[in-house]
Amino acid sequence: MNRPEASARQRALLILQVQTGQITATAAAQQLGLSRKSYYQWEKRALEALIQSQEPQAPGRPRKASDPEKEQLRQQVTQLEEHIHQLEQVLELRQVVQKLPGSGAKKNSRSCRPSSNKQPPPGPSAG
């Protein structure tokens, strides 16, 4: 019997009809174009899936599978944000130190302040 493959809905309906005694397994197998043995394999899989679907589930939405690349980028963003925060604190402290009396008298050769003879980097003009 060369029948096109039955849809999942058709198979489920036939399995339910067999389970409720409306038709026999042989009749269902014939309608599906299967041997009786193959029908019973389909039925077993369907009933196992039904039972598994009724197992208690964790509340809420299931967790989405994480994308390793996205997770790595999130970590990098977090690290960069922390670094920016640290640099902002350092800059704030330097500005406070510059305002202290006598702070301009000694110049440390290891100072991180840019020297006044350097030209500012090119950028958009303020005009």
Notes on the structure:
- The termini are far apart.
- This protein has a domain at 8-53.
- Helix 2 packs across helix 3.
- The chain has 127 residues and is mainly alpha-helical.
- The model has no long low-confidence stretch (mean pLDDT 83).
- It has helices at residues 8-19, 25-32, 36-53, 68-99.
Concise summary:
It is built from four helices and no strands. The chain is mainly α and 127 residues long.
- Overall residue-averaged pLDDT value: 83
Mind describing the biggest β-sheet?
none
Determine the structural class based on helices, strands and strand pairing. mainly alpha
What is the straight-line distance between the termini? 84 Å
Count of helices? 4
β-strand percent reads under 5%
Quaternary state of this entry equals single chain
Shape: rod-shaped
Q: Which bin fits the share of residues in helices?
A: 55-70%
Q: What is the β-strand count?
A: 0
Listing every helix as H and every strand as E from the N terminus to the C terminus, the arrangement reads HHHH
Radius of gyration: 37 Å
Low-confidence segments, given as residue ranges, are: none
From the structure above, extract its key features.
127 residues, mainly alpha
Write the layout of secondary structure elements.
Elements: H1 8-19, H2 25-32, H3 36-53, H4 68-99
